[in-house]
Amino acid sequence: LFFITTRVLYGIKREKNLKFNWRQKVITLLVPLILCNTVYQIFISILKIIGGAPVKKTIISNLQMVLYLGGSAMWFLPVMFFASMFFLITIKNQKLNISVTILMCIIGLFASIHVTIIETILKAFVATAFIGIGFYLFPLFINKIRIKYLVILFFINMVLIFENGMVSIADRIYHNPIFYYINGSIGTLLIYQVAMNMKKKNCFYRFFRYWGKNSIKILCFHGFIIQIIRLIDYQLLKNMLPHLKKMEGIIMTLLVMVALTVMMPLINKFLNWTFGMKNCKRSIDKND
To answer: What CA–CA distance (Å, rounded) separates 260 from 242?
Structure first.
C-alpha cells in the first residue's frame, strides 16, 4: 500500500524534478530514520541492561542496528528511500525505467544473500516494482470501480492469499512472486476503493485521515509505546499479556492507538522538525 501510494501521487503530479525528490526523500525518510532509530536503540539498550543483559554485547548489538539502518519497523524507511531513488534515477526514459525495475525485481526476489545492509537493498529492489505499478497504473487506483467488479477482485485476492500463504518483505518471504505482486496490487486497490467511498462526515473517515497524515510518526514512535507497555505489564501484571495469546495483539494495538492519538498533538508541536515537515513544505512552495 505505501510503496504503491508514493508513486500514485507522483504519477498524478508527473513531477520530473529529480533533484527536489532526492532532497525531499532525505529529509522525510533518512533524517527521521537516523534520529528516531538512534534514540530507540539507546532506549532498548537501557531496558535490556536494566533487565540484566550484558552491557558490552547489548551496546554493540544495538549500535549495529543503527549502522545497518534497521531495527523494529524501522526497516521500512531505508527500503522506501532506496526504492524511490532507484526508480527515480531512470524515470525520464520509460523503457529503460521499466527494464531496470524488472531486473531489480528479479534480483531482489531470488538473490540468496544474507548480509544486513545488502538485504536492505534487495528489499528495495522488490519494492521498486510496487512503485512502478503505482506510477504506471495510477489511473486504475484513483478511479471508482463498480461493486460487482470489486466483489470479484476481493474473492480473487482471498483465494490467492490463502494459496500463497504468509508473506513479509521485512523478512524477504514472498513465496510465489506473481501471486505476491497480484495480491499486493489488488489489496491496495480495494483499500483505495473503501477510502474513496467513505463519507467525509463519517467519524471513521476523520480518524483514518488523521492517522494517515501522521503515519510516518506512528511508524517511528509506536515501538517506544510497545516497549513501555511491555515494561508496565512485566512490572505490575507479571507478564499477563503474553498469556492472552492472540488477544495480546488486539489489546496491544488498541493501547498503542490510544497512546499515540493522545500524544500526536505534542509530537506535531515539538517534533515536526524531525520529519522535515517545515523544510519539505518550503521546498514544495518554492517549486510551485
So the answer is: 22
